[in-house]
Structure prediction request, 1421 residues.
Amino acid sequence: MTGWLPPEAWTALALSLRVSTVATVMSLPLALACALALARGRFIGRGALDGLVHLPLILPPVVTGYLLLLAFGRRGPIGAWLEQTLGITLAFRWTGAALAAAIMGFPLMVRAMRLAIEAVDPRLEAAAATLGAPRPWVLATVTLPLILPGILAGAVLAFAKAMGEFGATITFVSNIPGETRTLPSAIYTALQIPGQEVAVARMALVSVAVALLAVAVSDRLSRAVARRIAGN
Amino acid sequence: MTGWLPPEAWTALALSLRVSTVATVMSLPLALACALALARGRFIGRGALDGLVHLPLILPPVVTGYLLLLAFGRRGPIGAWLEQTLGITLAFRWTGAALAAAIMGFPLMVRAMRLAIEAVDPRLEAAAATLGAPRPWVLATVTLPLILPGILAGAVLAFAKAMGEFGATITFVSNIPGETRTLPSAIYTALQIPGQEVAVARMALVSVAVALLAVAVSDRLSRAVARRIAGN
Amino acid sequence: ADITIFAAASLKTALDKATAAWQAAHDDKIVVSYAGSPQLARQIQQGAPADIFISAAPEWMDTLAGDKLIDPASRRDLLGNTLVLVAPAADGAPVELTSKDALTGRLGADGKLAMALVDSVPAGVYGKEALTHLGLWDGVEARVAQAENVRAALALVAQGEAPLGIVYATDAHAEPKVTTVATFPEDSHAPIIYPAALVTHDGAAAKPEAASFLDQLTTGPARADLGAEGFVVLPSPAPAAKP
Amino acid sequence: MLQVTLHHKLPGFTLDAAFDSPPGVTSIFGHSGAGKTSIVNAVAGLLRPDVGRIVLDGTVLTDTKAGIMVPAHRRRIGYVFQDGRLFPHLTVRGNLGYGARFAPRGAPGPDVAAVVDLLGIGALLDRRPGLLSGGERARVAIGRALMSRPRLLILDEPMAALDAARRAEILPWLERLRDQLGVPMLHISHDIADVARLATTLVLLENGRVRRAGPLAEVLADAGAATGLDPGDIGAVLSGHIAAPDSDGDDGLTRIATPAGDLLVGGIPGPPGQAVRLRVRAQDVIIAEGSLGRTSALNVLPAVVAAIEPAPPMVLVTLDLPGGGRLLARITQRSVDHLGLAPGRQVHAMIKSAALG
Amino acid sequence: MLQVTLHHKLPGFTLDAAFDSPPGVTSIFGHSGAGKTSIVNAVAGLLRPDVGRIVLDGTVLTDTKAGIMVPAHRRRIGYVFQDGRLFPHLTVRGNLGYGARFAPRGAPGPDVAAVVDLLGIGALLDRRPGLLSGGERARVAIGRALMSRPRLLILDEPMAALDAARRAEILPWLERLRDQLGVPMLHISHDIADVARLATTLVLLENGRVRRAGPLAEVLADAGAATGLDPGDIGAVLSGHIAAPDSDGDDGLTRIATPAGDLLVGGIPGPPGQAVRLRVRAQDVIIAEGSLGRTSALNVLPAVVAAIEPAPPMVLVTLDLPGGGRLLARITQRSVDHLGLAPGRQVHAMIKSAALG
Ligand SMILES: Nc1ncnc2c1ncn2[C@@H]1O[C@H](COP(=O)(O)OP(=O)(O)OP(=O)(O)O)[C@@H](O)[C@H]1O
Ligand SMILES: Nc1ncnc2c1ncn2[C@@H]1O[C@H](COP(=O)(O)OP(=O)(O)OP(=O)(O)O)[C@@H](O)[C@H]1O
Ligand code: MOO
Ligand SMILES: [Mg+2]
Ligand SMILES: [Mg+2]
Prediction:
């Protein structure tokens, strides 16, 4: 098996898995908050937030990567601040790759959650309120469990996107073997060389297999949840 | 205004709008069919279809573009067949750019629709059946109207993605001015020249403005629909 | 008739000038598709309607030649380039490439050396070759940040994210935010060559307009436009660089 | 004619029911959770029973042994759901129209105007279900099902959310559907008064099993079946027809001729000769001895005590009427003792006109 | 004490209601679409009225003029919704627990075991609402609201989906909540029998306006208010208390002492001296002349005709009872003529024991 793919490809796969998982998990709470705000909120700046969330989808990935570089690079205002106060370095690190992946997947995650939230019957939330539950509690115990399939769908979309993200990642954190060379970067590299088609195909296959597994698992999970709720 | 952006950028914008609109509109029916099949179907190959739909999300866009080139190029099996029997040329044409954009946005569109379909109360569909409505009619008159917000959400996601799609497009149909040089390709091209930051920023801004407008309009629409249904 | 040119993206500024000049004097419309050389070469393999291909590296031209997709007689080495070491403009002290720790010293504790992908993108491949030749590669290998293309590597230096980068002289020339701090000796790497050729479609003869534009490029006033961007304008007509 | 045999297991509940439903209205009556909705779901084609056979007018709809399961939309069975299920995206008009869309052209049945009028939903036509009150929703659901001109109409507690006045308005019309168009109905209700007015057949369901099924009058008058009923609901049903208008003038009373004698009843309009059914609740019958003072109770029928059965805290007295038919009277043991009642004893049964309306 | 003043416009409907609800149970009674649910929604804090003021026990909950709108979760008002609204993702146990989660520690009220027992939902505890029948859902919803130990309990047609037996089981317990714990209730029902047993105050709502509000007995006995009621629902309420056990032995009857005389009633258990209320439906009262034969009707009270009003197709006779209190009798015009009834006339009112249960 190790001969089938060069060892560096396995390294890249491991890194991609780490990056995608971290990106997905870390962006979940913020995505949920955004989805809630967008689905239920009535505040000034709602439109602006909506736009901001969609940006990574609309901009060519390299532009997003470039903007990330400007903001989160070592010399970037946020990057410098993070490094000095929290000791978090993103530039040229796998953490930066995770940030890029998280940002690219963010609109997908928020949309899925938001759709699910909008499908929740607000009358159930009203019922919870009459039972004395304050708003945050209602969200945690009624809204959240009901949108679990949506959260899973959003997470798996973001994960899949993270597994395939390349443009923003390489622009922001470059391609450093073992640190930021994710599977898509490795694939891209191979694509630049004539005659590497087989290696490309193999790596793509592995990437696809992993992401599809995630899709399948999440689908099964969310169906199970939905079935339990519907009761049949 | 025309001086603010070079004329070719306006051409690219017009092309991007055309490509994105066509991509979105043309993929709607198929996306809906896939979403229905995935949400409600119980058939062999459901998992395979699910995976296939997600592929463009998972694969690095250049790989997707390359696969499109292999399949839909002039020498590709599907491309050659399309050209000979239907006279449709996709390779290096804006129609090919639309195909690439449609495929890249497809998983997003399907997911949004599928989430919406899964939120439809099957008891309403059962009620329609007792009124004598055959399954396709039930879909058209009950399921479809109820998932309108989801369809809109899916369409706007796909449109936004199409406005930003670059990797697959340039790999599949190249970067031919007036034919396949979409706004993201123009941005990429400009990025190749140092000191073009202002032009890049302006083009990105235009692209973002258009996509955000679409997002805002669709949001307003789907809220209106949802409000009408909820009745308050 | 229209002339379609598939050209490596890094040629954009130079080639845009040359085509503008040509169109001022001729009726033929020229469209140029700029993208990565590998992408363009693969598209030509799939029947892209290109009349002229200008690659950023000879190997993709070789590939097309092997597939009999170019007119071998028309192939010429159009331009050459020089490989340079750049640093942010604010930090422009020259670097002595002969010294073993010249690079590592300048990079500091955790600074990165920005390059294009060292295994695949030509600028990266040349850079790695040169560093190896100079005995510097082993010292910096772990410090290299590989960018998608040479322009992205340039951007890393321009933004101050990387204290050093290896790019083409043409890139350094165009980006005021960087300074050239060293130039790699010509013999430290294979010659940097941008070959050009007419594309043939299924053995059909190339468009005469395309042939005359290509000739004009290699002989005409366009040479000045190309040279102004910092390219090495190779002697014309250049001998085919096929080994 | 509907024939139903069902066996179906759910976690924690087993349905094991068989009954025949002759033309007319069959009411299914039983406790909450007895399985009523499950039965009608199977009939409508929304539940595939583990084992079962359902035949409507000779057409096999479900037959698990033969592998037959006609899909719901081909059964032409209208269904007014317990939980409403109006289409939220359609106006009331749209909901009604949906019902009409697949109604066979020639099938008999009321048109939109008639249905709207009957159900008092004219003012709601352009509203969406989300803006309707609970009762309004129920009325629209009934209308929608009617518009589909079904071969069989299932009503699952259709009037639970309706007030008495609205109920009183709708019931006669359901009766008319039954009598004039002959639309057979399968009807679930908790209100035995509705059942008594509508049903021709009564199925008493207990815990997934049919406890008693048969003609309404028989089941209702069966003191043994009474445990399945609310004490206040037990009673008898007398059949008769509207007699010639009473000479005593137009005071709103209708004279109903029954084999046991004439009864005066308030507010049953109809032409002479029309068949009517009167439910006489055991609770509304007073037993009197031979000589009676003058009272406001206009209806006094001679009767013979047939049986006396305990129904704590009261007793149930079955009375044979001379012309045929029976009455039940729910009275106290103390009265039995007072009057010295025993089988064979000649008495009078007194019924207020007001109790028969 | 709950004070409500509301003005709220909806497309096609205007709510304009004010009433006071003294401690005890206030029932809101009115046609479908009259605005009952809208009123209780405002009380629960789920509807912000255009103009209005709602005060519960001195606490201002809503005051649009003062800009006060206490959020629903701080009102401590339990709400049994007309449409159930159980949490689909929680089991029955989880739903009950949700109600209990925010119940103030010290507040009086039943515990889970008591609620489960009362509502007969022990077997359902691990099931999800999707698997419950309509009536089961209603019972769980009642239980969930009770578990939150509210200061005021809103019941929006809580028993519409319940069968008579289950109703009969739950009602006494709601009475106990009212009497022993003093949980005030705002109650909506179409069933005047439930209303009569539960309510201390009755609000008759018509088309968004309060037509009549006041103590139950007054409103029910008001022939003028009767247009808002089903003819069968009109009646009087007599207050009394349980008298010493009857010497006549243990035949299940209870003697109730009222100012107008003693009445024998079936099946009202309770210690002597306990206050009870008896609803006497106008339909169940027979008017007799002085000399009476022996009948099974045990309760005969002397009375004086106070008024005779038409209530087509019948007439309503108001009877003054000598000891105080009134009865209504719904009889035919023909009987009035027969008996020569007129105000001031001495008669007897006959009421079956069975009708008083
Ligand atoms: N959001 C709304 N917009 C417009 N009309 C509404 C809205 N909500 C309720 N209505 C209307 O207001 C009236 C009162 O509704 P409400 O639900 O209070 O009635 P109700 O007395 O509870 O009736 P029911 O006994 O049928 O439940 C109805 O005519 C209803 O259609
Ligand atoms: N899918 C299911 N899985 C498990 N149990 C179920 C399911 N559906 C219904 N039940 C149970 O089956 C029994 C019968 O349900 P059904 O809905 O037929 O009762 P019902 O007679 O209509 O009651 P109600 O009068 O309360 O509506 C109930 O105990 C219910 O909890
Ligand atoms: O579409 Mo992108 O090109 O890398 O995600
Ligand atoms: Mg049911
Ligand atoms: Mg209501």
Observations:
- The first strand of chain D starts at residue 2 and ends at 10.
- Chain D has a mean pLDDT of 84.
- The longest helix of chain D spans residues 164-181.
